Amino acid sequence: xxxxxxxxxxxxxxxxxxxxxxxxxxxxxxxxxxxxxxxxxxxxxxxxxxxxxxxxxxxxxxxxxxxxxxxxxxxxxxxxxxxxxxxxxxxxxxxxxxxxxxxxxxxxxxxxxxxxxxxxxxxxxxxxxxxxxxxxxxxxxxxxxxxxxxxxxxxxxxxxxxxxxxxxxxxxxxxxxxxxxxxxxxxxxxxxxxxxxxxxxxxxxxxxxxxxxxxxxxxxxxxxxxxxxxxxxxxxxxxxxxxxxxxxxxxxxxxxxxxxxx
Amino acid sequence: xxxxxxxxxxxxxxxxxxxxxxxxxxxxxxxxxxxxxxxxxxxxxxxxxxxxxxxxxxxxxxxxxxxxxxxxxxxxxxxxxxxxxxxxxxxxxxxxxxxxxxxxxxxxxxxxxxxxxxxxxxxxxxxxxxxxxxxxxx
Lengths: 262, 138
Prior knowledge:
The complex is a heterodimer of chains A (262) and B (138). With 262 residues, chain A is α+β, with helices and mostly antiparallel strands. Chain A has helices at residues 24-37, 55-70, 91-99, 199-207, and strands at residues 2-8, 11-17, 102-107, 112-116, 121-126, 137-148, 159-169, 177-187, 192-197, 215-221, 226-227, 246-253. In chain A, the strands form three sheets. In chain A, strands 4, 5, 7, 8, 10 and 11 form a six-stranded antiparallel beta sheet that branches. A four-stranded antiparallel beta sheet of chain A has the order 3-12-6-9, sandwiched between helices. By secondary structure, chain B is α+β, with helices and mostly antiparallel strands. Chain B has helices at 2-14, 16-25, 82-93, and strands at 38-40, 43-45, 55-57, 60-62, 65-67, 103-116, 122-137. In chain B, the strands form three sheets. A three-stranded antiparallel beta sheet of chain B has the order 3-6-7, with no helix packed on it. In chain B, strands 1-5 form a two-stranded antiparallel ribbon. Helix content of chain B is 25%, strand content 33%. The interface between A and B is large, with 44 and 35 residues. Strand 3 of chain A pairs antiparallel with strand 7 of chain B.
């Protein structure tokens, strides 16, 4: 330790502080205490190779920077992971954010494009793991976000219909039972993030995880011809990292966090 | 009164040694800046804790802490509660039994932390009462 003297004009202000490296055991103790405050049983060990530059972390970083600007605490440098593009968060996200205590993004565990041969119907399936949501958090809103690029192919009226379904029941020998969540007409020239409200579905998945059989999206022209999602410009796994589809959920703390006694 | 105070100030400026003598004699005087209750810097570095692989932002935060004496008289800048003022007076009358008020945070702010979980999902969470914005006597 050492004593340090600060001089402020004529008055001599003394402050004593310890300036030394923490021992390994002290550092471990400090880590344990801070993890407990953060509500984590142990430090997460994510597999982050290039996922840092995925759309979900970038979107979350956008939200983080929005919060930091609103908070009184000065944020000397905006955190940037990759090249800064247009903001990912919409005005609606900001509204959800102001009411939220926690925001969580989910990457799709299983995303595959399939075709049902007899009907020549194309669809893309998504699956999200919601089992890691901390206790005491109530979901107030959730969205599926898909990036749509401008397509050079022109369909009837320059539009097509995108439908999003909740998978209700899967079958070995036939198509899955689906529940239509939303249908939206899109222009071929349209480009940007599409946001779909899936709050009711994700709340059901949180309450009864066995109902979580994922989502499906399908696209068809106005005459009813099924299109492959990428034909409609919907970015999937093979697309750019910063345009990958993901799910985001907003939470409000429903119960007080009680730290365990050590 | 203002005129009286002005007169005192004038006296003080002409007799600095007298003034400093009276300060040192009154060991309970809070104008002793060395020990007055105030906010001090304390920075918690997530980087130093070796967490930069899972905490995306911030790198750390200025938690701060409160330290110092809560002595008579408790000036307005110390953010003292009414109770603290009374407790200080009772302490002066009965120092053996009644302690001085505590120097503690009066205003605390939240921080937001952005981090990865085990599944590489990203969590943005607000933690209340993490940063000391102001200190005072309680």
